[in-house]
């Protein structure tokens, strides 16, 4: 009998292959829904986290830059690569007064196992209802799409990434962050 996790992994891989094959993303619309607007307040949220703090809100990070990245599922290959790259680059982000936060529909226990397995030192948030993913235009049926948002210290959305290659994504986000920070100086 096929396990649920194996089925979901195969299903998600098929969906992403199909999406990449289509290679279609209108400017203000992502496959996961209507994206929030750049240079507008980022949608507020409060979600449970694996870090032991109970819940995390976007307002907890006022005064810091935030890289908010949505991903489909813990332990899948692309999501693992993306998380590892963010973890590898975490010291550079922290030097730039920037917090990395991951969001998926997985529950807190799955996030804790994923962080323990991969040595992740940044919070993962459990959006099991998909409400926050929907607010960010990053929800498809029962999982979060692979989208990333850069939010400035005042809570304003400054950059959106919808076509994400997990292998190089952290480097792309960091380069965009540096440009945004230089422009705001």
Reconstruct the topology from this structure.
Blueprint lengths: L3 H19 L6 E2 L2 E2 L11 E3 L6 E3 L7 E6 L6 H19 L2 E7 L3 H11 L5 E3 L4 H5 L3 E2 L2 E2 L2 E5 L5 E5 L7 H16 L1
Parallel strand pairs: 5-6, 6-7
Antiparallel strand pairs: 1-2, 3-4, 5-10, 8-9, 10-11
Helix pairs in contact: 2-5
Short account of what is shown:
The protein is of the alpha+beta class and 185 residues long. 38% of the residues lie in helices and 22% in strands.
Q: So how many helices? A: 5
Largest beta sheet: strand ordering: 7-6-5-10-11
Total beta-strand segments: 11
Radius of gyration: 15 Å
Average pLDDT figure: 88
Fraction in beta strands: 15-25%
- Estimated helix fraction: 25-40%
N-to-C terminal Cα separation, in Å?
57 Å
Q: Quaternary status of these chains?
A: single chain
SS content category: alpha+beta
Order of helices and strands: HEEEEEHEHEHEEEEH
Largest sheet: 5 strands, mixed
The stretches of 5 or more residues where confidence is low (pLDDT under 50) are 24-30
Task: Kindly describe this structure.
This protein has 185 residues and is an alpha+beta fold. It is 38% helix and 22% strand. The protein has five helices and eleven strands, in the order αβββββαβαβαββββα. Strands 7-6-5-10-11 form a five-stranded mixed sheet. Strands 1-2 form a two-stranded antiparallel ribbon. Strands 3-4 form a two-stranded antiparallel ribbon.
């Amino acid at each position: 009998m096929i396990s649920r996790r194996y089925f979901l992994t195969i299903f998600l891989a098929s969906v992403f292959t199909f999406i990449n094959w289509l290679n279609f993303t209108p400017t203000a619309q992502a496959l996961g829904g209507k994206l929030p607007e750049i240079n507008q307040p980022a949608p507020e949220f409060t979600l449970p986290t694996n870090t032991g703090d109970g819940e995390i809100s976007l307002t907890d990070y006022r005064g810091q830059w935030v890289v908010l990245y949505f991903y489909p599922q813990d332990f899948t290959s692309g999501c693992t690569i993306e998380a590892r790259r963010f973890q590898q680059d975490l010291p550079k982000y922290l030097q730039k007064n920037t917090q990395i936060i991951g969001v998926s529909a997985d529950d807190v226990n799955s996030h804790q196992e994923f962080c323990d397995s991969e040595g992740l030192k940044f919070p993962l948030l459990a959006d099991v209802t998909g409400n926050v993913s929907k607010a960010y235009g990053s929800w498809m049926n029962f999982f979060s799409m692979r989208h990333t948002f850069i939010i400035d210290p005042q809570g304003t959305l400054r950059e959106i990434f919808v076509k994400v290659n997990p292998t190089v994504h952290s480097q792309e986000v960091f380069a965009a962050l540096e440009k945004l920070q230089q422009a705001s100086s």
